[in-house]
Amino acid sequence: MITRVTHQSAQRTSLANLQANLTKMSTLQAQASSGKVINKASDDPAKAAEAMALRKEQRAADQYARNTQDGLSWLTTVDTAITSSVNFMQRARDLVVQGANTGSLNREAREAVAVELEGIRDALLGQANTTYIGRSVFAGSSNGPAFAADGTATPTFGPVERRIGAATTVRVDADGTAVYGSGATSVFALLDDVAARLRDPADNVSDALSQIDDRIRSMLSVASSVGARTNQLTSAQATLSSQSLSLKSDLSGVEDIDLAQTIIELQMQEVAYQAALGATARVLQPSLMDYLQ
């Protein structure tokens, strides 16, 4: 049995093939110009879903990286303030040792030591109210300064934390009362008391040395905790940087074209399209009279 192929069916077949070739060539041109395999979800739904999932992970990793950098800035500010405070306290200790030598200092010399201690007290209050981008690093999540002018700590509402992973948060501030004390037990009250006692020639302030040493140890203890958290954030930063590069590579593998391969395919498709144009032209060429003959 011989299958009958009409001129009209041959035209439809040729035009359909021509359109298919043109569509494929258009797709390759879009990929070559954009550099992406997927220009819309319908191009490859499975790969589009994979790319969306990778982009979601990438956005999360980028946010964690920003949180980590912000946390490092907070902790660096805290560490600098505590280091400066320890230095001030060491100077205060030297002055107390000097002031305890009652037989070698006259009234004017003791007054000078007292005035310097009061200056150190004010400098420590400034360190205790250190801020980062307008937020006190020793006041927790509360607004305003960590300490009032009289050295009393203001109420706090909780620690400042930064999320650096799906299930990991790190505290980036420090408890001001752990560093400086508060009220009558604060370092400010201690230095005020020593300065007042120095103005009494009969008073020996040597007993204040142990209190100063206790406060220095408290400061160093908090500084050690800050250092540990800084190391944690530094490690997380390195991990997130590596993760970000890995996600970029994975996304590129899903979305990006092989440029050389795409150009070759485009050239081949252009040749096929030109051939299809020639074949279609021949099919459409006969007239009605040619067909009737």
UniProtKB/TrEMBL annotation:
Gene Ontology cellular component terms for the protein in this record: bacterial-type flagellum hook
Residue span(s) of domain Flagellin C-terminal: 210-292
InterPro entries named in the record: Flagell_FlgL, Flagellin, Flagellin_C, Flagellin_N
Short name of any one Pfam family annotated for the protein: Flagellin_C
Superkingdom of this protein's organism: Bacteria
Keyword Metal-binding carried by entry: no
Compartments it resides in: Bacterial flagellum
Record keywords: Bacterial flagellum, Cell projection, Cilium, Flagellum
Domain Flagellin N-terminal: 6-141
GO molecular function: structural molecule activity
Example GO BP: bacterial-type flagellum-dependent cell motility
NCBIfam families referenced in this protein's UniProt entry, alphabetically: flagell_flgL
Similarity annotation: Belongs to the bacterial flagellin family.
PANTHER family the UniProt entry points to: FLAGELLAR HOOK-ASSOCIATED PROTEIN 3, FLAGELLIN
Protein name: Flagellar hook-associated protein FlgL
Gene: flgL
